[in-house]
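re: the backbone from monday

yeah here it is again, tokenized this time
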């Protein structure tokens, strides 16, 4: 029996990304080299696998998980491999990045999928756009674009939105946003020549519009998705917030501070509250985890992952789950993790039980 796993009552699961398919919620961990599956009906967390050759504990190894056919692709942010999990064979393989790319960070802060291709957008302009062919299980550098990503470009996962074959980014610290049209193979930069519009921190897409929320701002600014022209602005009731969208209609406004969020209906202009609580004692080192993630399933269900309280909420029904590492298939997790490289240093931000149970394997 592994001592470290069983002594903790609720070791948090911090996903950097997740998706829901039928009864299963699949997630990739933000602090561990691990893919998990949570059974909603069984209220049980299962460890599915890890990418070999990557440390067991390492912050932000991955940024996204995408399912195509019977494969789940783990897209790296700071890892050197693209993970591929076969849901039929229950096996993990990987694609190694080019030797000259290894050791660089920020490979993919966001992705866009077109047909059988996954385009990975880098965190900064000095990294290339990676394209993963999900049928051939290989990747290549995509450089067949008119225009270039500027060297000064840097963004974050909250500053990215998909818009009808385009991907639009806020550019950190600048009143500009970057647009990549993958259908026309064109990269363009749009300035925001409006005095009243601040530098944007996050962006969302809904109802034919792009919505920008500025740093430390309590106003949201809307732009026409086609022309990229400024349309209007409106106030919100949250401070220091980020926005996400769902249902092509609703803006989910989640703050770094305080309990609960608010939802804005872009069709009616009405606000409503979304209640949840947060326990800051459970908050990890990464400040981004102070806000949760919104994802939609193919059958129209909407899920919110409260990453502070380690709580899954199905917004369409109000059902709640708390996935725990305690009680997981201990032998399976132990056998795989003992083969992975152990980190040289473990910071307090990686702790909350993770350090203890991994080091006891």
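seq for it, each position gets an aa:
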């Amino acid at each position: 029996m592994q001592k470290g796993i069983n002594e903790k009552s609720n070791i948090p699961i911090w996903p950097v990304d997740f998706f829901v398919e039928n009864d299963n919620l699949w997630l990739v961990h933000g602090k561990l080299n691990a893919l998990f599956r949570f059974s909603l009906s069984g209220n049980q967390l299962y460890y599915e696998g890890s990418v070999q050759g990557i440390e067991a504990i390492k912050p932000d190894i991955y940024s996204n998980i995408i399912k195509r056919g019977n494969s789940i692709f783990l897209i790296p942010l700071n890892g050197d491999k693209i993970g591929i999990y076969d849901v039929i064979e229950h096996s993990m393989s990987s694609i190694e990045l080019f030797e000259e790319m290894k050791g660089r960070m920020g490979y993919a802060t966001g992705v866009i999928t077109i047909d059988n291709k996954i385009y990975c957008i880098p965190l900064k302009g000095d990294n290339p756009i990676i394209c993963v062919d999900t049928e051939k299980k290989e990747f290549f550098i995509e450089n067949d674009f008119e225009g270039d990503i500027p060297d000064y470009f840097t963004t974050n996962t909250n500053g990215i939105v998909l818009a009808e074959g385009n991907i639009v980014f806020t550019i950190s610290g600048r009143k500009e946003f970057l647009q990549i049209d993958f259908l026309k193979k064109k990269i363009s930069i749009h300035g925001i020549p409006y005095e009243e519009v601040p530098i944007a921190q996050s962006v969302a897409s809904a109802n034919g519009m792009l919505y920008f929320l500025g740093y430390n701002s309590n106003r949201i600014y809307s732009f026409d998705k086609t022309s990229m022209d400024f349309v209007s602005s409106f106030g919100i009731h949250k401070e220091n917030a980020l926005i996400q969208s769902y249902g092509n209609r609703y803006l989910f406004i989640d703050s770094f501070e305080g309990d609960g969020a608010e939802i804005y209906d872009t069709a009616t202009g009405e606000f409503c509250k979304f209640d949840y609580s947060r326990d800051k004692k459970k908050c990890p080192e990464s400040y981004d985890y102070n806000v949760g993630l919104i994802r939609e399933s193919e059958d129209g269900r909407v899920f919110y992952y409260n990453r502070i309280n380690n709580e899954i909420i199905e917004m369409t029904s109000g059902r709640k789950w708390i996935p725990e590492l305690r009680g997981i298939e201990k032998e399976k997790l132990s056998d795989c993790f003992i083969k992975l490289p152990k980190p040289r240093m473990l910071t307090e931000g990686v702790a909350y039980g993770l350090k203890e149970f991994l080091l006891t394997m």
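The helical segments are 3-7, 330-337, 354-359. DSSP finds three helices and 28 strands in the chain.
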